[in-house]
Structure formats: structure tokens, C-alpha cells
Amino acid sequence: MTTIELLQPDDWHVHLRNDEMLAAVVGYSAQRFRYAMVMPNLMPPITSSEAAATYRAQILQHVPASKSGFNPQMAIYCSDTVDLNDLKAGIASGAIAAVKYYPAGATTNSAAGGQSMADFMTLYEVLAESGVRLLVHAESTDPTVDLFDREAVFLERQLATVCERLPELQVTVEHVSTAAGIDFVAAHDQAVATITPHHLSKERSDLLAHGMKPDLFCKPIINSAADRDALVAAATSGESSFFLGTDSAPHPTTAKYGPTAKAGIFNAAYGLEVVAEVFYQQNKLDQLEAFTSRNGAKAYGVDVADTKIRLTREAVDADIATSFTTAAGDEVVLFGTDEAALWKVEQL
Ligand code: DOR
Ligand code: ZN
């Protein structure tokens, strides 16, 4: 039997939504994680310090009292409507922990995003001066670029230029999904990357080769087996530039199953078990704590946790839930049920 204790993990990229969906999902994140970097792609998007503070208060209302260590960090949406004085004030007060750049049209609720990263240099200067990270959804929206090449092309055409022009800017390449993304981070001291449980454990044949699986559809798209292997190598290396961001993104089955599927995978419930199994299979469990609990804290300048969890690889007797239903009647499928049956997680 394999058992390992970890400092409480953090989730440096999560979608908590609002209303009934927020009420249904936040407990899953609070159950496992300490810090959570909360994405701002609501409708309308979170673009001010006041909206961020209001949203944070709504999130905390739904956190169980026993999980008071759960600490949402709020990212605001990079858009024309961001007021730079408000941004500075929000950074100073702690209401704003980061700014997220979405290319317009790349993914769910990204319509308010940018056409070109270079349009926001003045905003990035504020971030660089305050040591606050720019979080980047790195995906080209050029329709002539193949879906599986979009991360590499965006990094080369857009983020590389911004990094060159502003070397003091700290960036996080979110949900890095390709070997090209790993190489980009390795080549730029100012860049780190989050990696998701699904990009670490699946490759595009899982998505497409055995009947198309809407539950594995997300953006950026799950890429080739070689890309997945590069992500696994980076995550299990212990290298401080790489850490866990689940990109847990719930969508009702009504939005996932049909002629078009919304992008997003809900993995807040079992993402940790998925990651543990990836590290176990690589014989790299000794590097798991760096990935889940240390490297992200370092990148965001916070202390590591003072609480711990224990993971034990043993057959779990209890029934493994495969979905949940919100108070509005929406069903959401849980990612990682196979791994959830293999790992017991205890709060210490
Ligand atoms: O798959 C995704 N879903 N990727 C994103 O970038 C957004 C997310 C969502 O909000 O559903
Ligand atoms: Zn996301």
C-alpha cells in the first residue's frame, strides 16, 4: 500500500461560476484546496475591484464553516473597461490578485477578451510595477491556424513579444497543453505555468478515437500523446515553474451533450486523485508536493499551508459519485472517477 502526506494543495486556476452552480461546486474545491485562483469569465465578466470583492463574498457564503481555510484569490478580466486606478487600488487592498487575458472568442465567455495582447501594454506596466501576475489563456484565434497548433502559435506570435517588451512582467501560461508551451516556460524566466489533471492524464485519442467524448472537451484542446508526455515530465520534475491549476470548469450536461459541446471539464472533486495517479505511475510521488502545494505558493509569493492531507492508494469501498445536480436541476459530470476509486484522501 502506498501512502503519502502532502501540505494542503492549492488550485491556481478554477472556475466557480455563480448562483446555483457556485453553490453546488465551491464545496468540492474547499474540501481539497487552500488557495484558489478564481477565474473572472462570468457574464458579465469581473473587471473591477468592487466586482471582484462582491464575487469573493458570494463565494465565501457557500463555503462550509469547517473549510474556513479556503482562500479565494480573485483574478479580474483583462479588457478595455479596466480602470487602471481601480486596478492599482484593488492590488493595494488585496481585492485583485491577478489579471487574466483571454483572446476574444477562444473559449467559454471570452467575448469580452482582447484582439491582440499588445493592446494592453499600459495595463501590463501596472502589473509589472506591482509584481502582480498576468494570467494568459494562450490560444490563437486565427481561423487559419489548426486547432492543435493554437497554443504554440499564440505563444510565438503574441506572448513572446509581450515578454520581450516587458521583461519585468510576471506571466502564468494557464493550462499549458503542449510541449511547445513547456519549452516556452523553460525559455522565459518571467513565465510559469499551471497544468491541469486532464491534460496530464489524457491525450487526444481519448477525446476522439473511441467515440467523441464531450466530457473531455475543453480549451485548450487536449493535445497529442507526445504533448501529454512533455506535460507529465515537467509536472513530475519538481521544477518550480510548474504547478497545479485544475481549470475545473462545470457545464451542465445539457450544454455538453448535443450538436455542439461547451468547453470545460469539472475536476474539482477528483482532480487531486488523478494527479496522484499520474505521479504514482511515473514513480514520482516524491515530487507531488512540489507540484500541488509548493511551487504555486512560491510563484504567487504566499507561504505554504500549515495543514496537511494524506493520500493512500487503496481500493475505495464507498460508491464513487459520477455526477452532481444543482438546485436548478442541472447535472454536471465528475471527471476522474477511475482514479477516485484508487485513492483515499484524508484531511489531517
Ligand atoms: O475548457 C475551458 N473551459 N477552458 C476555458 O478556458 C474556460 C473554461 C470555462 O469557463 O468553461
Ligand atoms: Zn480556465
Helix-strand sequence: EEHEHEHEHEHEHEHHHEHHHEEEHE
At the fold tier of CATH, the topology name is: TIM Barrel
* Uncertain residue ranges: none
| Biggest beta-sheet profile | 8 strands, parallel
User: Helix share of residues?
Assistant: 25-40%
List the helices and strands and how they pair.
Layout: E1 2-7, E2 11-14, H1 19-32, E3 35-38, H2 49-61, E4 71-77, H3 84-93, E5 98-101, H4 121-130, E6 133-136, H5 150-165, E7 171-173, H6 179-187, E8 191-195, H7 197-201, H8 204-208, H9 225-235, E9 242-244, H10 253-256, H11 271-281, H12 288-299, E10 308-313, E11 323-325, E12 331-333, H13 337-340, E13 343-347
Parallel strand pairs: 2-3, 3-4, 4-5, 5-6, 6-7, 7-8, 8-9
Antiparallel strand pairs: 1-10, 10-13, 11-12
The structure holds (4S)-2,6-dioxohexahydropyrimidine-4-carboxylic acid (DOR) and zinc ion.
Task: Describe what this molecule looks like in 3D.
This protein has 348 residues and is an alpha/beta fold. The chain has a single domain (10-303), classed as Alpha-Beta Barrel (TIM Barrel), CATH 3.20.20. It is 36% helix and 16% strand. The chain contains 13 helices and 13 strands. It has helices at 19-32, 49-61, 84-93, 121-130, 150-165, 179-187, 197-201, 204-208, 225-235, 253-256, 271-281, 288-299, 337-340; strands at residues 2-7, 11-14, 35-38, 71-77, 98-101, 133-136, 171-173, 191-195, 242-244, 308-313, 323-325, 331-333, 343-347. The strands form three sheets. The chain has an eight-stranded parallel beta sheet with strand order 2-3-4-5-6-7-8-9. The chain has a three-stranded antiparallel beta sheet with strand order 1-10-13, with helices on one face. A two-stranded antiparallel sheet has the order 11-12. The longest helix has 16 residues, at 150-165. It is globular. The model has no long low-confidence stretch (mean pLDDT 97). The structure holds (4S)-2,6-dioxohexahydropyrimidine-4-carboxylic acid and zinc ion. Zinc ion is lined by residues 13, 15, 39, 247, 249.
